[in-house]
Amino acid sequence: MVKKTARKSEERILPLVEEFYSIQGEGYHSGKAAYFIRLGGCDIGCSWCDTPYSWNPALHPMTNADDIVRHVIDSGTDSVVVTGGEPLMWDLGYLCLQLKKNKILTYLETSGAYPLTGEWDWICLSPKKNMPPVADIFPCTDELKVIIEDKSDLDRAEEFRRKVTRQCRLFLQPEWSRFEAVIPGIVDFIKHNNTWRISLQIHKYMHIQ
Q1: Do the Cβ atoms of 145 and 199 come closer than 8 Å?
Q2: Which of 152, 146, 158, 144 has its CA nearest to residue 185?
Q3: 24 vs 29: CA distance, rounded Å
Q4: What span, in angstroms and rounded, lies between the C-alpha atoms of 24 and 61?
Q5: Mean pLDDT on 36-60
Q6: What pLDDT score does 6 carry?
Q7: What is the DSSP letter of 54?
């Protein structure tokens, strides 16, 4: 089911950090090829973020969405992952519209801290401690992916689970730099709460972007 939202004004110029064709390395779609669009801007500031270079949108070129879509089409992909930073700091209605016109599947990776815009085939919600998701995104979420840095995050994961639909896929992902410390607790938790699955960042094991 495609989720559709829109604001009155749609951004046609977006701060593009990077774009590349690669393999999805996390969550439900791990192992699938996809074109990645990383947008600049994030005011959440997670200490463990692996893309802090994306936080300041002023450091990245403002790029016409039509040019981005052309690059997507030229890659030969059938799906796009829009990520960040926090991509929902920008109105994504126009970008999604042009992608959908070209029969490209649209996947979103977001903290949910900002209102949802765009037309999405898949929404992955990865909520953060510093800025909780807006309430409206929970019914639209296809995949809940909670990053586990310490034991308290497991309690937070359960709080978010109760807000999404029963059809939502549930993933716990160890924070990369604390993998050895947190993975035993995640394994034990899932053995007692088997609606959850483990997400591993397989692109890092493969040493690809």
Answers
A1: yes
A2: 152
A3: 6
A4: 25
A5: 90
A6: 44
A7: G
Domain residues for the domain of 73 are 3-205
- CATH number for the domain harbouring residue 9: 3.20.20.70
Do residues 102 and 76 make contact, with C-beta atoms less than 8 angstroms apart? Answer: no
Residue corresponding to tokens 């007692």:
192
* Start-to-end C-alpha separation, the chain: 29
What are 146's two structure tokens? 């909670």
Number of structural domains in the chain: 1
Task: Tell me how many degrees the CA angle 44-117-24 measures, rounded to the nearest 5.
Answer: 70
Q: Shortest CA distance to 16 belongs to which of 90, 73, 75, 79?
A: 90
* pLDDT (tens digit per residue) in 59-89: 999 999 999 999 999 999 999 999 999 999 9
Please state the pTM of the whole predicted model.
0.92
pLDDT at 1 (0 to 100) = 47
**Residues in CB range of 78: below 8 A, 6 or more apart:** 103, 104, 105
Query: Residue written as tokens 């519209």?
Result: 97
| Segment 123-173, tens digit of pLDDT | 999 999 889 999 999 999 999 999 999 999 999 999 999 999 999 999 999
In this structure, are residues 156 and 138 in contact, taking their beta carbons and an 8 Å threshold?
A: no
Residue 85 contacts by C-beta under 8 Å, 6 or more apart in sequence? 17, 38, 39, 40, 41, 42, 51, 54, 55, 57
Give pLDDT, residue 176: 87
